[in-house]
Design goal:
The chain is an alpha+beta fold. The chain contains 5 helices and 7 strands. Strands 1-2-3-6-7 form a 5-stranded antiparallel β-sheet. It has a two-stranded antiparallel ribbon with strand order 4-5. Bound molecules: nickel (II) ion. Nickel (II) ion binds next to helix 4.
Length: 201
């Protein structure tokens, strides 16, 4: 199975999951928008990705603008989730959308208040780690308590891909990357891919 296909099952639009080819052909306009969005996403090596974000205290128009901007960046980048640290903002804020037609969900100051015992391993990619795919074990079922962009409390019960994306993005808010959650062997290989991608850039 090709790397790109595996990546599509995570950070890229999930409906491309069944594409048999390596890289689905993107409309040039869509590809250009994606590249422009990705240019705003901090990449591996940027210390902000290793920094713990601070709780959001002000639920004002500036915060709502930040949420809207992150939602747009995530859509344009064709990701299924984005954490504020990935755009250089140290706020405990993440956005995600695991189904193309669904609304973007923003979780602010999220806390996993419950998780089931069951775990599942699957390949994950990350917009901040181009060309990297590693196996990550995650809880299959979680319950998250958070605030929305108006400061109202929300509770999300998530399973499968949705639970995986939320755990991945909360990790970002703690400065944790998928490299920290995979095997030593896969981490070594990922580091090599990152070096090669950085040299090619
Ligand atoms: Ni990520």
């Amino acid at each position: 199975m090709s790397e790109q296909l595996e990546q599509d099952t995570f950070e890229v639009e999930p409906d491309e999951e069944d594409q048999p080819q390596d890289e689905p052909e993107l409309d040039p306009e869509v590809a250009a928008r994606r590249a422009a969005a990705l240019a705003h996403v901090r990449k591996f090596g940027d210390p902000v990705l290793r920094t713990r974000a601070r709780p959001v205290e002000r639920f004002d128009d500036a915060l709502r603008a930040e949420v809207a901007r992150m939602g747009e960046l995530m859509n344009d980048a064709m990701g299924v989730g984005l954490a504020a640290t990935q755009v250089g903002v140290l706020h405990r804020l993440l956005v995600y959308r695991v189904q193309q037609q669904a609304a973007v969900v923003a979780l602010i100051n999220p806390e996993i208040e419950w998780s089931g015992k069951e775990e599942e391993t699957a390949e994950e990619g990350c917009l901040s780690l181009p060309a990297v795919l590693v196996d990550v074990e995650r809880k299959l079922h979680i319950r998250v308590r958070a605030l929305d962009e108006r400061g109202e409390e929300i509770v999300v019960e998530a399973s499968g891909l949705e639970a995986r994306v939320i755990q991945h993005e909360i990790d970002h808010l703690d400065g944790v990357l998928i490299l920290d959650r995979t095997s030593r062997e896969q981490r070594k290989e990922a580091m090599r891919a990152l070096r090669e991608a950085q040299q090619a850039a």
